[in-house]
Write the structure tokens for this entry.
Amino acid sequence: MKRRISIFLTFLFLFFFTVSFALTEKDFKNSMNFYQKLVEKKVSVEELIFTLQKILQKYSDREVNLTPVREKLLTLRKFKISRDFYEKLEARGASVDERIAALKRILIKFRNTDADLSKMENRLKQLQGVTAGQEKGLEEFEEFEVEKGTATSAIEREVEEEEIGSSEIKEEAEDLEEFKEFKP
């Protein structure tokens, strides 16, 4: 009789253990689905880190494989550090080229993570637009054609027509006469 009771208690323990493990595994999957919905909504990195920390705390004493959760958490923390470094770099007044290089490194390194990179991608496009605008500006400058004559002759003409009434400007125009050798 004692043997039957011990066997019955053993089976009862195994049954409850199996049921509780199945519930734990199902609950863990639900928690990870919730986390994935947060990723899809593109919430902040801080919220993702907080959620993963809570999942780790909740299932740390259960028999659930938490390795993927730990890996995601580590990657998100590294991303947060990189993002914060970029923000300090930008606040410090780093050159556009330095900021572009930093953003490219971050985007390449963390492209397959759960972090929302859209703000950084947009910032990179803006900075690349600035550099493209500078290059375009230089091209326009090279295409700029100077009218025949110089500023000296334009000032002289204005002085003769008495559009410029200041005696100082008239004196400067007379001083420019000395530099006729620089006329085209």
Remarks:
- Residues 6 and 12 are 10 Å apart (CA to CA).
